[in-house]
Amino acid sequence: MVRVTAPLRVGVVGLGWAGRTHAESFQALPDAEVVAIAGKEADLAAAVARDLGIPATYPDWTDMLDAGGLDVVSIATPNSLHMPIAVAAMKAGLHVLCEKPLASDAEQAAAMVACAEDTDRVLETVFNHRNRGDMALLRQIVGEGGLGDIYYAKAAWMRRRNYEVRGWFANRDAAGGGPLIDLGVHMLDMLLTLLGEPEVTRVTGSTYAALAPQWLQAQGRDPATWQVEDLATGMLHTAGGATLLLEASWAVHGPYADDDMSIHLHGTRGGASVRVQDYVTGPVRVYHDVAGRPAEVVVAPGKGTGHATVVRDFVRAVRSGDWAQHRGHAGLVRSKIISALYESARKGTEIRL
Ligand SMILES: NC(=O)c1ccc[n+]([C@@H]2O[C@H](COP(=O)([O-])OP(=O)(O)OC[C@H]3O[C@@H](n4cnc5c(N)ncnc54)[C@H](O)[C@@H]3O)[C@@H](O)[C@H]2O)c1
To answer: Closest by alpha carbon to 133, among 305, 313, 312, 310?
Structure first.
């Protein structure tokens, strides 16, 4: 085990919301420093570097890796670049923190995990939503046994009207999919985390592009630029017999806010749910029988920590020198399930994992 003692020298790839959040989160730690940032937007790179005190900027991730002098690469680029950047970085001896989804598909995610094992590097996926205050509270309620065995759970992230997805998000090659791989992967992560990482054995998925292309056409724009689903649903079965439902949309007619996120857990002793609209964290509702009658307790969650905790835990893992439990497996499990849901939607059949 090699303990790392000097501050970690971090290079961040990507200058969007995610990249900037990575850079801010590393810079906030005493034992890490962002020494380089890479991205296509030269003006933005200069502004981020100036704001956060980052000494070097590069137009492309390859230039940043070629320049050397890094211990860590933090990836916040379009999904299709996650695998090539991570593999090149790990082969160059660097540890990797990668935005969700780990990769555009399960095959690429598996190649990344295999590379982490071969090169003995840390590979972690950013699943920041599991650090929300309401998720932490739900995890505590589940962990204390308050719900008994959870046999049915639902998670949804529904955006009612998000046709104006930016840049690469609706491009199949760059993104690997639409709201399922973008938002659904967060909800899947939260469900699996809350249920203690159950093994998912079979899935059925459906995808639709019912509204977004129509809307583009009505605007006189090319509907063919919309290459992914605008709504997806999935049914997952676990080895323990639980059923999980997943929903994600960028466009849907329904009783949703522009950002509408919900989780419902149903167990043998109780149930719990949370609904968050437009990022305003709602309370956690817990359902039990009291004196033989249905009762509801409403509990206020604490503040969430998001990327700050993901980055802190990643830095701790790298510095510990004990890397065997940090090879990207959680990201791979989620990528396999998302890919299986897409395969099921394509083939119209259930897929066994
Ligand atoms: N965890 C979260 O809450 C969260 C939120 C938003 C986005 N994300 C994820 O973060 C990633 C980026 O999303 P975004 O919204 O920031 O995207 P974005 O389009 O705003 O930014 C992408 C960045 O990648 C850079 N890039 C592209 N090709 C490059 C290259 N060859 N070399 C160097 N840089 C290159 C672009 O210049 C740009 O700065 C995606 O994987 C997305 O799923 C996660």
So the answer is: 305
What one-letter code names the amino acid at 230? Answer: D
Residue 290 CA to residue 242 CA, distance in Å, equals: 25
Residue type for position 127: F
The one-letter amino acid code at 158 reads M
Task: Collapse the DSSP code of 149 into the 3-class scheme (helix H, G, I; strand E, B; otherwise coil) and give the result.
Answer: coil
Q: Is 22 in the pocket of ligand 1 (CB under 6 A)?
A: no
CA distance 103 to 82: 6
CATH superfamily of 133-303: Dihydrodipicolinate Reductase; domain 2 (3.30.360.10)
pLDDT 10s digits, 16-63: 999 999 999 999 999 999 999 999 999 999 999 999 999 999 999 999
What does the block give as tokens for 134?
Answer: 């309401």
**Which residue type does 101 have?**
P
Looking at 3.90.1510.10, 3.40.630.30, 3.20.20.70, 3.40.50.720, the CATH number of the domain 8-128 comes to 3.40.50.720
- CA 182 to ligand 1: nearest atom: 43
Nearest-angstrom CA–CA distance, 62 and 276:
39
Two tokens at 152? Answer: 């049915």
pLDDT class of 176 with cuts at 50, 70, 90: very high
Domain boundaries, the chain: 8-128, 133-303
Cβ of 79 less than 6 Å from ligand 1: yes
Residue 18 CB–ligand 1 contact under 6 Å: yes
For ligand 1, say whether the CB of 86 is within 6 Å of any of its atoms.
no
